[in-house]
Amino acid sequence: MQYKITSGENYAVLGLEGAQLNSLTKNGREYLWQGDPDFWAGQAPVCFPIVGVLPDGKAKAFGKDCNMKRHGVARINPFEVFEQHKNSVTFVQKSSEETKKQFPFDYELKIKYTIVGDTVTNEYMITNTGNEKLPFVIGGHPAFNCPVDEDEYFEDYKIIFDKPVTKPCLRPDHHIGLVDADKKYDVMHGTDTLALKHDLFEEKDALIFEDCEPKSVTLIGKNSRGVRVDFQDMNNLLIWSAMGHAPFVALEPWTGISSCSDEDGTFENKRGMTILAPDETVSFKFKITMI
Known about the structure:
Blueprint: E1 2-7, E2 10-15, E3 20-26, E4 29-30, E5 46-47, E6 58-61, E7 64-67, E8 80-84, E9 88-94, H1 97-102, E10 108-116, E11 119-127, E12 134-136, E13 139-140, E14 143-145, E15 158-161, E16 193-195, E17 207-209, E18 216-220, E19 226-230, E20 236-240, E21 248-254, E22 274-276, E23 281-290
Antiparallel strand pairs: 1-2, 2-3, 3-4, 5-13, 6-7, 8-9, 9-10, 10-11, 11-23, 12-22, 14-21, 15-16, 15-18, 17-20, 18-19, 19-23, 20-21
């Protein structure tokens, strides 16, 4: 089941499965990656209550066993429509027997998408519906066509941050997804611009900008089309493309990052963890603007 939200001629399509973006269209042009199993079948999964992976898929959270695959339980469990309007739709997922087999905590996750003009706001609202502390991280994983136009190439694109990036990034292992915290990669060299090339993603996986000082990043091609992602509520940004010269780039705002080599395996001690008291609610937003 899909839901279309509109603003003038612009629109977004949201899928009930995974409560994720399926399309971002401006002036008849599709900006969102449409999925291709030859590269990556996904499009824009929502990562909760982990981003990335746990070591061997396991962790202890306040003494309770967690067993989760990459990016957690939200994307692989059912959502319902909570509210729908012409330019917005809100999905909701509540913890269930199925989610608690992997993540033994009670929660309510609402995901709201709103389109105004060229911009789609993604909002995640998490409520602790249990009687004990709720630990989690959350993040978006939207991938964008690169190139957007048929007369362009991947290498015609660049990523521009709203200020120079002064810290080296981290990178997860291609195969196991874990991050060696001792290995840093200075891909930006103190500048605000990253020229895209497929080689960036062949030997290593995503670029992880931890505690990212910039809060806006623009993917732009030679025809001056692309997307801007504003992520004031998120501390980390990942930039990723699949191996094999995939024609997309994912720009992923996360509150945490994948498991790192210097962590002790305790879930609540992971980087970027949010811990909610019973009945507490928190909201995180980021925006995607089609250019």
